[in-house]
Structure to design on (398 residues):
């Protein structure tokens, strides 16, 4: 039986916080964080490489090798995907290795007799070819989980975990938004298969134990603040949630309206927040006695905010930040949802229909609470992984 127990976990990441956090969250929910090793897909960076991020990683690397032959090795290669800052890593992660499908498949094969099968968890577009290749090279020794919709050929993975709004193109409303000539290129094109697990939002690490630890760690700084404590999480515009200084000005005006109903307000920005947005928020609210804006220095208070806030205001662009806030059971107000299009509008509609979010209007009394059934996507997805492993005759360590 020992040979059927998962004792190795390979996380395939791309350096993007939103993708890797989902992998860490799922592995944490499975109780396997102490067994995980992080591998990252490494793209060439610098110069013209910034314009080639849309290419498959393998082709991108080939072109970079050709460039080096012609011009010499003058540009650095970094473990970064799209120029984003790398996310803080869990304490269990000691080293980051370059993702190589043949290497990981070989490790899985060699370790099977002694340690049993391996679990591969990947998320992000650049990881798809790696995780699917591992599955192809070592099908009898690994169980592969791809988080987020891999666009095509879902049968390359043992399990796919993806939000319901990724299937928005199949709805009648979604079809109306796709030009006829492009419909064959828009995925998904078929209904979810048996091995596809649908979630409401994104997976994350903010489970009950993590929030208890954060509440203890941040108690002295946050628990003693005047209540209610309102936490404001500001993301950044995306292709389907476009905004700029207009949203920043709206946000600050609405926050000033509800300040009298708050004891304290804490504001945090994400890695994607443009300076033109954060500068306006700092200028309008930075000197207010009830407001504290995290300056990006020192430990990130995000988990402490999730644990100890009484309510949240979150910009509509971030599925991850909304998913985390909506898992706490505390009031969550959204600003900017009307600026979102395509499947992101469907995501916001699903949250509203479930009663887990309300639009931020500036007329709220933050001292008044309301309840809902918190999102529990990560735990539910972990249960589906355990079920799928059992069907294969494999299990987790007891």
């Amino acid at each position: 039986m020992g040979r059927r127990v998962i004792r190795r976990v390979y996380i395939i990441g791309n350096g993007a916080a939103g993708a890797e956090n989902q992998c860490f969250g799922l592995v944490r929910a499975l109780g396997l964080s102490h067994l995980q090793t992080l591998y990252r897909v490494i793209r060439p960076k610098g110069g013209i490489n910034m314009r080639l991020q849309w290419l498959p990683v393998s082709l991108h690397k080939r072109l970079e090798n050709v460039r080096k032959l012609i011009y010499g090795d003058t540009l650095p290669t970094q473990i970064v995907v799209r120029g984003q800052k790398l996310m803080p890593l869990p304490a269990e992660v000691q080293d980051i290795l370059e993702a190589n499908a043949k290497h990981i498949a070989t490790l899985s094969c060699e370790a099977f007799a002694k340690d049993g099968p391996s679990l591969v968890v990947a998320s992000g577009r650049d990881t798809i070819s790696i995780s699917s290749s591992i599955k192809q090279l070592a099908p009898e020794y690994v169980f592969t989980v791809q988080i987020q919709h891999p666009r095509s050929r879902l049968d390359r993975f043992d399990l796919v975990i993806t939000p319901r709004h990724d299937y928005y193109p199949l709805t009648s409303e979604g079809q109306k938004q796709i030009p006829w000539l492009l419909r064959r290129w828009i995925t998904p094109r078929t209904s979810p298969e048996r091995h596809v697990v649908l979630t409401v939002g994104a997976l994350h690490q903010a489970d009950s134990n993590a929030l208890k630890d954060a509440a203890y760690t941040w108690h002295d700084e946050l628990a003693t603040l005047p209540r209610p404590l309102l936490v404001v999480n500001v993301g950044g515009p995306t292709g389907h949630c476009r905004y700029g200084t207009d949203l920043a000005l709206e946000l600050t005006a609405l926050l000033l309206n509800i300040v009298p109903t708050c004891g304290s307000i804490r504001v945090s920005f994400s890695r994607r927040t443009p300076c033109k947005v954060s500068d306006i928020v700092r200028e309008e609210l930075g000197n207010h006695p009830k407001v504290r804006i995290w300056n990006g220095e020192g430990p990130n208070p995000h988990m402490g905010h999730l644990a100890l806030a009484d309510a949240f205001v979150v910009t509509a662009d971030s599925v991850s930040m909304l998913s985390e806030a909506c898992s706490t059971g505390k009031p969550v107000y959204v600003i900017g949802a009307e600026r979102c299009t395509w499947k992101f509008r469907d995501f916001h509609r699903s949250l509203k229909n479930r009663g887990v979010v309300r639009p931020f209007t500036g007329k709220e009394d933050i001292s008044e609470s309301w309840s809902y059934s918190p999102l529990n996507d990560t735990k539910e997805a972990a249960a589906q992984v355990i079920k799928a492993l059992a069907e294969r005759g494999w299990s987790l360590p007891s």
The CA atoms of residues 193 and 371 lie 34 Å apart. The chain has two domains: 4-73+90-200+379-395, 208-374. The first strand starts at residue 8 and ends at 13.
